[in-house]
Design a protein that fits this description.
The chain has helices at 24-51, 58-75, 78-86, 94-127, 132-135, 138-163, 180-185, 192-226, 230-258, 267-290, 294-303; strands spanning 3-4, 11-14, 91-93, 168-169, 172-173. The strands form 2 sheets. A 3-stranded mixed β-sheet has the order 3-2-5. The protein has a two-stranded antiparallel ribbon with strand order 1-4. The protein contains 11 helices and 5 strands; from the N terminus they run ββαααβαααββααααα. By secondary structure, the chain is mainly alpha-helical.
């Protein structure tokens, strides 16, 4: 296998779903539909929360950020994936690959931290309801959102710089985007040390947030069980349940992909797992947060010019 010159002139061939050529047209249709629903759903969340004053609260401020992240995250992958499936162009330059790798890690890492921020917001709302407005001040909300982006940036810079130090052999990437484990499989030399560093970085951005989220939800559950009001319990379980569902969907698929050794990584399974956290989860997030949310439903009916009292 020839050594791959990791310079700006090098290029990769993204194999995508070429192992199943008879399914590529079906993949194209379904992925296009899911991408449209993702754009429509998340854009709707952002629009109605800006138009309705009832939704201009810390919870919806963070939900806006999550919707924006999902829009950017999906858009950093899906358009190029559709071009790949259509057969128009399956190549990507080394510079383009590293740029996509950096952006995907930036957005994914930011979402990991933002989900922790969102559970902190729910903790204050459930466990400190009388002090909620004073604690979740707009300045703090903006600071927490910016911190999420800074954390995602640090994570992306760290992992991208580690990947760029690895000499690669071969040009064929058995994936539909520049994914870390696939790149590691092209390494020309032993990457044990680099893999360890990448695993630690992945554990920090994935395992630590999950531990914080689960610990926080333990406190929330304790507070909810102490609440004698059925209405209060139902409201707390509704908002927290939506967030917890998103957490399991996002972290579950991401941890399955990134916290496994390179030698046991399966390209076929990795592609379908990647479809889940890059396309399906961003599409489901707006539905999960709005399906049982009366405030969002009311705001949407108001935007559409319908009387919520008749619905």
């Amino acid at each position: 296998m020839s050594s791959f010159n990791t310079t700006l002139e090098g290029s990769f061939i993204l194999m995508g779903f070429s192992d199943w050529p008879h399914l590529e047209h079906i993949f194209f249709v379904f992925i296009s539909v899911f991408y449209f629903l993702t754009i429509f759903g998340n854009f709707t969340i952002i629009t109605i929360s800006r138009m309705d004053r009832r939704l201009q609260t810390p919870m919806y401020f963070f939900l806006n950020n999550l919707s924006f992240l999902d829009l950017c995250y999906t858009t950093s992958i899906v358009p190029q994936l559709l071009v790949n499936i259509s057969g128009i162009n399956k190549t990507m330059s080394y510079a383009g690959c590293m740029t996509q790798f950096f952006i995907v890690l930036l957005l994914g890492g930011t979402e990991c931290i933002l989900l922790v921020v969102m559970v902190f917001d729910r903790y204050v709302a459930v466990c400190r309801p009388l002090h909620y407005t004073s604690i979740m001040h707009p300045l703090l909300c903006h600071a927490l959102a910016i911190s999420s982006w800074v954390g995602g940036l640090v994570n992306s810079l760290t992992q991208t710089s580690l990947i760029m130090t690895i000499p690669l052999c071969g040009h064929h990437l058995n994936h539909f985007f520049c994914e870390m484990l696939v790149l590691l499989k092209l390494a020309c030399e032993d990457t044990g040390g680099t893999q360890t560093n990448l695993f630690v970085a992945g554990a920090v951005i994935l395992v630590c947030p999950v531990a914080l989220i689960l610990g926080t939800y333990a406190h929330i559950a304790h507070a909810v069980l102490k609440n004698k009001s059925r209405v209060g319990r139902r409201k707390a379980l509704g908002t927290c349940g939506s967030h917890l569902t998103v957490v399991f969907l996002f972290y579950g698929s991401a941890m399955y992909t990134y916290l496994q050794p390179v030698h046991v990584y399966s390209g076929s399974e990795g592609k379908f797992a990647a479809l889940f956290y890059t396309i399906i989860t961003p599409m489901l997030n707006p539905l999960i947060y709005t399906l049982r949310n009366k405030d969002v439903k009311g705001a949407l009916c108001k935007v559409l010019g319908r009387d919520t009292s008749t619905t």
